[in-house]
TrEMBL record:
Keywords for this protein: Membrane, Transmembrane, Transmembrane helix
UniProt xrefs under InterPro entries: PMP3 (IPR000612)
Domain of life: Bacteria
Name assigned to this protein: YqaE/Pmp3 family membrane protein
Organism: Microvirga terrestris
One Pfam family matching this protein: Pmp3
Family note: Belongs to the UPF0057 (PMP3) family.
Cellular localisation: Membrane
Length: 59
């Protein structure tokens, strides 16, 4: 799955974007908690996870 699609998912439903990046690990549950506490922190965390786990393929 491409980064662009994951980022779009992260904006709409942050836990889904994290799930497709790392699965049901600790980062997924942290993201659910952040999303419950505030939608924006969930988005920021999800985009950070996606950017960190998937380096650019333009290297």
């Amino acid at each position: 799955m491409g980064n662009l699609l994951r980022i779009i998912l992260a904006i709409l439903l942050p836990p889904v974007g994290v799930f497709f990046t790392v699965g049901l690990g600790g980062q997924f549950w942290i993201n659910i908690l952040l999303t419950i506490l505030g939608y924006i922190p969930g988005i920021v965390h999800a985009v950070w996870i996606i950017a960190r786990r998937n380096p650019s393929s333009h290297r």
